[in-house]
Amino acid sequence: PVFYGLLAKSSRRYWAYGLAALIVLITGWTRVVGNVHTPAQVITGWCIGVGLLVAIIILEKPATRWWQTNSLKNRIIGSFCFSSLLIIIGLFAAGIAAEQTVLD
User: What is the pTM of this model?
Assistant: First the structure.
């Protein structure tokens, strides 16, 4: 949802939102039909994707403003901290995923 949602937003055309939603729905459906994911996993992915899309849209202007008004030193520190946070979240998610069985 994030990629296609931002693509639709940048086009500023109403039909692009419908097309983006259709692509996301069809992709999710094919993942379930192909036995790659369960319906619960696809729905969870959609929810996370929509949440990230909304967060990106809300935070885009404040983050751009912060980036443009800070020194190079502060940009580097901010980038390092944000990247570190993403790595920690990824490690946490990988730890949770490792406890689940994928194939029964």
Answer: 0.71
